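[09:14] KT: can someone run the structure on this one? pasting the chain below
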Amino acid sequence: MQSSDNTADPFAPEMRSAIMAKVSSKDTAPELRVRSLLFRSGFRFRLHQRHLPGSPDIVLKKHNAAVFVHGCFWHGHNCRSGMRRPKANADYWAAKLDRNMTRDRDACARLEAAGWTVHVVWACQLEEDTKRVIAALRAQ
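[09:31] RB: done, structure tokens below
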């Protein structure tokens, strides 16, 4: 199948659809790892609170903190994985990933305006970012 930029997708549309259907937005491996580290550090939390802007992955109500665990590709991190953009159907992907980043910034701003502390843990820096979040929560 040809895309608008003349780069062929190596998969047939049905196969691409099946691959994309397996991409999860909740309970991802990085998210499970962060939850485990937080729990083992003594923190108790709620998951995916839909009444909060952006439906944070982890909510620590006692600390008035929201944690987002972001995959670098999907949320446009400035690392190797986050800077990579698909060549097939490039216009679609550019718009999609830009919308994700805009939505993330909006959710963080709305949470902060409501008095929440927002932490972002990036998949590529999982251990480092999680330790930073734990240290910040302990300091509160």
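[09:33] KT: thanks! Residues 1-5 have pLDDT under 50 and may be disordered.
[09:34] RB: yep, looked fine to me
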